[in-house]
Design goal:
single chain; 2 domains; 8 helices; 33% helix; six-stranded antiparallel beta sheet; 13 strands
Length: 281
């Protein structure tokens, strides 16, 4: 493996998405070859998956109002709405968050006291990741949509195109299909105040994951336990690491270099860069 000198970068910025993390996260990602996808309801933003939920419910209720009283849709839609409104459901959309920028001041502020790092992943490699034993569409890299106004047309179109897909999925299967289609959409829509992040998300919706599934792990956070899934990535997916603002940048770069060199995997060329953000951590 060759690690490039500071400032060199062999990949176009358009080809990369960045995962911000602290020192412990960097070590874990490098040494395990895994990314963690957390249940979106347990992320730092208290409105995760809930921000656009009222709009989704409104669209479904509007559709229900236009259906005949005695019809399959009149039976299925209330069940789907009820499932989406469940606060203690054991299933959800799992996400790994990425940013379009590898040197964003608002992100460094979140890691300033712990020393932050932005790991630049090749976008196409991340897009191709699949969760084991799941269907081809269970994992996808999607750009976040900020605000209800731009999301409304997107949601209405998604629900309209989803509906014919319930044919042949009567009763329980049909309303589960609606919920599993809508959960990843809810995980992609955020309040416009977060738009600076220009976020993309790797969204995983494990099909029919039952309560107690052994794939679900748990980690601690500042406010609760967080359910998460482990997802293997190819080692050549990492193209760049940006070291966040801090008092010992050269020493930190040396440590990251040694961390990469200590791995037995055939790491390809990775560029190590320092942040240029004027932030005193």
């Amino acid at each position: 493996m060759r690690v490039d000198e500071v400032g060199e970068n062999n990949s176009s910025e358009d080809d990369l998405v960045y995962h911000y993390t602290n020192a412990g996260g960097l070590i874990g990602i490098i040494t395990s070859g895994q990314l963690w996808a957390s249940d979106a309801r347990f992320l730092n933003d208290a409105a995760e998956t809930a921000f656009a939920l009222p709009e989704v419910i409104r669209i479904l209720q509007e559709r229900l109002a236009n259906e005949p009283e005695v019809s399959e849709a009149a039976e299925i839609l209330p069940l789907a709405i009820s499932m989406l409104n469940e606060k203690d459901r054991s299933y959800g959309a799992y996400v790994t968050c990425f940013c379009e920028s590898g040197d964003l001041l608002s992100q460094w502020r979140g890691y300033g006291r712990r020393q932050g790092y932005a790991i630049g992943f090749d976008r196409s490699s991340i897009s191709d990741l699949k969760f084991p034993d799941q269907g081809p569409d269970s994992t996808r890299l999607e750009r976040v949509i900020y605000g209800l106004e731009p999301a409304r047309e997107f949601l209405e179109h998604a629900i309209a195109t989803m509906w014919p897909g319930t044919a042949g999925h009567s009763g329980t299967a049909a309303h589960y299909l609606i919920v599993w289609t809508l959960l990843p959409l809810l995980a992609r829509i955020k309040h416009p105040s977060f738009s600076e992040e220009r976020e993309s998300r790797l969204v995983i919706t494990p099909d029919g994951m039952p309560e107690g599934n052994s794939s679900v792990q748990f980690r601690t956070s500042a406010f609760s336990l967080v359910p998460y899934l482990r997802l293997n990535y190819p080692f050549d997916a990492i193209r760049r690491i940006v070291i966040g603002p801090g008092p010992h940048l050269e020493l930190n770069r040396l440590a990251v270099h040694q961390l990469l060199m200590s791995q037995s995997e055939p790491w390809h060329e990775i560029s190590l860069d320092h942040s240029v953000a004027p932030y005193r951590s």
